[in-house]
Records
---
Amino acid sequence: MSTPHPASPEARDRLVLGVVGGSGLYEIEGLEEVEQVALETPFGRPSDVYTVGLLPRAGGLPPVRAVFLPRHGRGHVLLPSEINFRANVHGFKQLGVTHLLSVSAVGSLREDIAPGDVVIPDQFIDRTAGRAQTFFGGGLVAHVQMGDPVDAGLARRVAGAAEAEGARVHVGGTCIVMEGPAFSTRAESNLYRSWGAHVIGMTALPEAKLAREAEIAYALVALATDYDCWHQSEVEVSVEAVIAVLRANVALSRRLIARVAAGLPVSTAELPYPRALQHALITDPARIPAETRRRLDLIAGHLLRAPE
């Protein structure tokens, strides 16, 4: 029997949890059999080394393999614009991740979303500029569906875990993703409110788009740290104020991750990841350059027949 392609459903039948940590979350707790893994990818170097280990599951089930990466690097050395999102997501795929939980600090655009609240957005509006948005190109064209960018099954589990940890949770909503690193002007903040957005951050895109191309289920835990600058009764956003709330949120996020892991099924059949590339590849396989095939093998190789 031939070995299945590493991106094929046959090779991804066991659920593997990835966690990408945002501002303040540079490690997760409770990992056993820990190892540090440094990777290179066809898209460059990820933000840092990956921490790989096992997190306990409830109910006597075997532990879940978990992979953690600090998005900004340990010590927070990367601006949002400097993050190599393609390398980060490709590295998660190399390590077998099927479901990716993204933890991110955000500003609130709604009165009822207070600093310290948890939001589980289900939509994004992209206001970034100049970031590499796709793995594809160079002779292979793909268009994935992004109408529902967040995996509903994973998001439900995350929301339930946050509620069980005593957090004030807002399920659903739209996250504006801006370029940064400066915070919004007041005019911009009010514009985003007029669009019906709920929170604003700097890192969920293109992360969510690349996860979809990599056929990894994605959910965002958005931790509100401030009211952005629209809320004129509040003091203007400062790094000090953000960090103060951020530190309070870090302990919550670590507990949340452990609770999510404890409730995950063993098989991806019970919590499927998106098969987003099944009908997304457009290019005639005979026209795909050999180098492009090599670069994109882990992403799309399971769907590409050998060149004739």
---
Amino acid sequence: MVLDVEKAARWIHRLNGKIQEQKQYLTDLDQAIGDGDHGINLARGFQEAANAISANSYQDLGALCKDVAMTLIGKVGGASGPLYGTAFMKLSMAWKGQKEIDREAMAKGFKDALEGLKMRGKAQPGDKTMIDVWEPAVAYMAGEGPLNGEELASVAKEKMEGTKELEAKKGRAAYLGKRSIGHIDPGAASSYLLFSTLAEVIGEGESA
């Protein structure tokens, strides 16, 4: 077992805490190349998601992820709500009826989520978006050998920082062209928080 309902709930609560702490940083990143509302919108949405799952008791991962998805879609403005909402909706479908999952099932869920993000955002690796973190993080999950939380977080961090050197091809940042180079993508930064927090949670206790 890599992830169960209890760990997933802890992941969402801890992710919410990290987003609240980093709200201004995410907003500053978005003010440089986007609409300037990424941190504010995500902080509101994940606080609502944390509140929603606190008010319920879950027997399976799918139901928990579905409530997170619906809350994010309903409460978060801008592009980030539909994107993160899509990701969690794909996770909910992949993990429906499962109280706990192994590495293979976790990787399958995140692969489905990644495909959902690509379809929703029409982005590919190299476009300077959250996909630049999601694609390598999911590839690591699906790889061989033991799943190491520190390695997962390291992959996500390296790829987030790598977006600084990219020219934006999607979203508001694309209008800046070459001027978008030199800035970390805000979606990549929030995606790093998602994966690094997941890495912390799955690293607590048994290894995969």
---
Amino acid sequence: MTTAPTTRPRQRTGRAAATAAFLWSLTAIPIGLWQLLDPAGGPFSHELYEPTFTLPDAVPAWTAPAALAAAGVLGLLAARARPGLWPLTALYAVVFGMLLSTTSPIAFAGYLCAFFLPLVVAAVPVMLARGAAGRLIAAAAVLAALVALGLTGVVDYAAVGEFLRMLGASVAEIGVYMLVQTWVVAGGAIWSALTLSLVLRGREGRPAPAWLAPERAARWGRAASWIAFACALPYGLTRMTWLTPWAWMGGPLDSSMIDPATRVWGLCLGFAALGGGVLCLGMTYRWGTRWPFWMPVVKGRPVPPKVAIVPATVVAALFTFVSVPFVALSVRQDALEMVWAFPFYVWGPALAAATLAYAIRRGVVEAR
């Protein structure tokens, strides 16, 4: 005799989502009041802020910040909503995750990944080396290569230092604006998590869908992982053409017109995209559950599920939520090639599905 599986939501996860929604709503009130009382200097008046959707000119300028503060007050109550009120929390997720978000967070995240990519590349030989002696030799070789690059003039470390100084100043200048933009996207993710928790709580005791079974999740999760991987290819491979005389980005480019700094940034961004695509495959292959041989200390040990689930969930939410403003911006600027070069509207949901399947296989999400 077998018993049909039923859904049993994780109570701790539900409480965490409710607490996060409450705290997020608490911060929405002062942010809304800040923009209302200081329209010229508020976080939504920055020169980089380009809203996806704008209100008609007939609507007073104070309406939007007042609505944000009011949404914060209502959110304090909605954070404690019963399962039947999940459409309200879903509305919060859509409005803040897709309608009020901009492309700034994804651009900042992309350049951040590209910035750290050279450090990762320099660390790879050390990670691949076997034994303590091998790692010391690899580290010495990497250091020697870096010194040689500087002495031969291939890399101008003085220019690198000046670039880092300018980059730090730029980040400091947009810090508050970027923090608020990240807060908007985080709100979408938090309200999405709360909505899912409420939906699951409403299904408590009912038979779980068959697709939540681990063996079924392994199949559709593998398909989702490969779809997410494929979404990284258009942009990554396009940037790789900058290594050839036939540079291309939405059309042929004159390679002689691409300065070295732009070429380096472009290639780093391309490699970051391709690296992210490869990591998507970790959701379905063995190296996503056990540390590979080249990882020192932890090699062969099980990968803690949250090490993969948490960053994958963050990236999936970011890609999904910025897809609407990204497509809108591409259409508005008549840059339709960006719609297929950055298929976030597929990449985000596919990565989310792959992450869910991974969580089911690892026992983090259970159908009972």
---
Amino acid sequence: MNRLESMSVLIAVVDSGSLSGAARQLGMPLATVSRKVAELESHLQTRLLHRTTRQLSLTEAGASYVAACRRILEDIAEVERAATGEYASPKGELVVTAPVVFGRLHLVPVIAEFLAHYPEIEINLMLTDRVVHLMEEHCDVAVRIGDLPDSSLMATQVGAVRRVVCASPDYLATHGIPFKPADLAGHACITFEVLASVGAWVFETGKSEVSVRVHSRLAVNTAEAAIDAAMLGVGVIRVLSYQVADALRKDALRVVLEPFESLPLPVSLVHKGQAPLPLKLRAFLDFVTPRLRARTAGQAAPGERVSL
């Protein structure tokens, strides 16, 4: 039995949620996937997976074993990267993740420039608004927006963005301009999940934060949909400043309640901080950091705050 291969198969089963999903992911016959997992359990003399007709789940022993397998396989991959020269010259693949709109507007142009400078580096870019787990999903670097929890990850702040409240000129002409957060009680609002803004919006006064309940006429799951609806006059939205920069330039949306905006959110580049740092990653961080700082400059400067 090739234990390293069996470990990789087991992780694929866990990540995909099924034996058949792992078989598709690995390009391996289903019977082979099932046999390799069974051989691993026989070798360990313990059950790693609970099997039902609908789903698979890890046993307690399986959970700790899979976590150890991930560490072992990552260590091996690190040794192989060193052996192939990734620590001698900047080459190889980088897996990068970022929020969808930020990635499209800011990161893709910078990456295009980076690739022109480093012809021996390839980048796999994942644009998603969910938080990607760097260790479990083998991701090298992530753009994160918001305050970061304490962890072993290394982070470099490259900017900050505002949370702005906007509406279309036609909507404001029909329904009036809200001049203080409490005025939102009389307005239709568009909410979406990413900013956790479905029930209430938080504003900053000269003294403290204030949470305001909003009436959600339309709830969506992406910022793009919320912005499109706002431009059509459906209601008021609360989004990140870079997401509506183009709409503001075209006067399709206008910012309201600017003196009450909550504090800007940091934009950070996050990586696992392994030592020594592969040259491909060092080259990427050194190249991208100043360029993202330049692109986000000025996006964290709201108007003067006022007290209620």
